[in-house]
Design goal:
It is a single chain. The chain is an alpha/beta fold. The chain folds into 2 domains: 2-132 and 265-311, Periplasmic binding protein-like II (D-Maltodextrin-Binding Protein, domain 2); 133-262 and 324-347, D-Maltodextrin-Binding Protein, domain 2 (3-Layer(aba) Sandwich), CATH 3.40.190.10. It has 15 helices and 10 strands. Strands 1, 2, 3, 4, 5, 6, 7, 8, 9 and 10 form a 10-stranded mixed beta sheet that branches. Bound molecules: fe (iii) ion. Fe (iii) ion (FE) is lined by residues 87, 228.
Length: 350
């Protein structure tokens, strides 16, 4: 039997009444309030699968790292946030220091997430857990630049790269963390000289995101640029003719392989200090360490999974290969950021 829309009205009204009467039962629906700085489309499937597996509905608030942290601070104890996801190690560290997280003791997370990718363990558990990593790479115009001109971050300031260099804003968290690590390697004086040299070498003022820098190298606007690895890998896997053309023209290097290694950043998550749905929050973090979720980070967003032994089927990550990573502690990178920002202001790195 088919019903006209008018005939449907009565049953729907009855159903609505039944639902409102059943208020207390409906209130037991499990929800998780997620504040997320992850800005990657492929994460949608990840969240949907968690809901399918657990019945826990996710309410998501999207902002960048700074926006998430500002909102948590302004909401204080009234914050509805249960889980926080951030895409920068120094911001995770900052939030930990500012007391925005609560410690989590989880055998699953401690078994799966390596200790160096976790926040401080207060004795009651870790403040946060890293779920994926990304390298800060240098890309270059193969036709104009030999690889040896760009195989160290220091060389971004070399005279040979005059007029070649493009980056996004110096005070973006990805760059602040790289520069915070460089401050540890070089000390304050050499870091300031280096960053002044980078500014002097710029082909244009900083603008756009990392993908824009890669494209600007291919278009000839720049010849050298800095990017997170997953933006490059995404382009390497793209079938779009315009992206294929870009990838044809550029070379990519993991800087500083002969000395301190390439800077690697961490995306991770934590349970919010005032979480009301704490069990669901821990369950969600544990889910992010599962083989399925780790596969989404690797194959969906082209990041390296935090869990050792995760099978990589991503052809771009395979093509990029393995490399030596830097070992500056995340807390040091975090603590260096105020000094880095002051240097950036002095050398005019916008
Ligand atoms: Fe990003």
């Amino acid at each position: 039997m088919t019903r006209s829309p008018r005939n449907l009205a009565a049953p729907i009204a009855a159903l609505a009444l039944a639902l409102s009467v059943a208020g207390p039962a409906a209130a037991q629906e499990k929800v998780l309030n997620l504040y997320s700085a992850r800005h990657y489309q492929t994460d949608e499937a990840l969240y949907q699968n968690f809901t399918k597996a657990t019945g826990i509905r996710i309410n998501r608030v999207d902002a960048d790292d700074a926006g998430v942290l500002a909102r948590l601070k302004s909401e204080g104890a009234a914050s509805p946030a249960d889980v926080i996801l951030l895409v920068d190690a120094a911001r995770l560290w900052r939030a930990e220091v500012d007391g925005l997280f609560q410690p989590v003791r989880s055998r699953i997370l401690e078994e799966r997430i390596p200790a160096q990718l976790r926040g401080k363990d207060s004795g009651q558990g870790s403040a946060w857990f890293g779920f994926s990593t990304r390298a800060r790479m240098i890309v270059y115009d193969k036709a104009r630049v030999p690889k040896t001109d760009v195989d160290q971050y220091e060389k971004l300031a070399a005279p040979v790269n005059k007029g070649r260099v493009c980056t996004r804003s110096g005070s973006h968290p990805y760059n602040l963390s790289l520069f915070g690590a460089m401050l540890e390697h070089l000390g304050p004086e050499k870091t300031e000289t280096w960053l002044k040299g980078v500014v002097d070498n710029m082909a244009r003022a900083p603008k756009g995101g990392d993908t824009d820098q890669i494209k600007a190298v291919a278009s000839g606007e720049c010849a050298v640029a800095v990017t997170n690895s997953y933006y490059l890998a995404r382009m390497m896997r793209s079938q779009a003719p315009a992206d294929r053309e870009v990838v044809e023209k550029i070379g990519a290097v993991f800087p500083n392989q002969a000395d301190h290694g390439t800077h690697v950043n961490v995306a991770g998550g934590a349970v919010a200090r005032h979480a009301r749905n704490r069990d669901a929050a821990v369950q969600f973090l544990e889910y992010l360490s599962s083989t399925e979720a780790q596969g989404y980070f690797a194959d969906g967003n082209n990041e390296w999974p935090a869990v050792i032994g995760t099978q990589l089927v991503n052809p771009a990550l395979k093509a990029l290969g393995s490399f030596k990573t830097e070992t500056v502690p995340i807390s040091v990178i975090g603590m260096n950021q105020v000094k880095v920002q002051q240097i950036l202001d002095r050398v005019g790195y916008k």
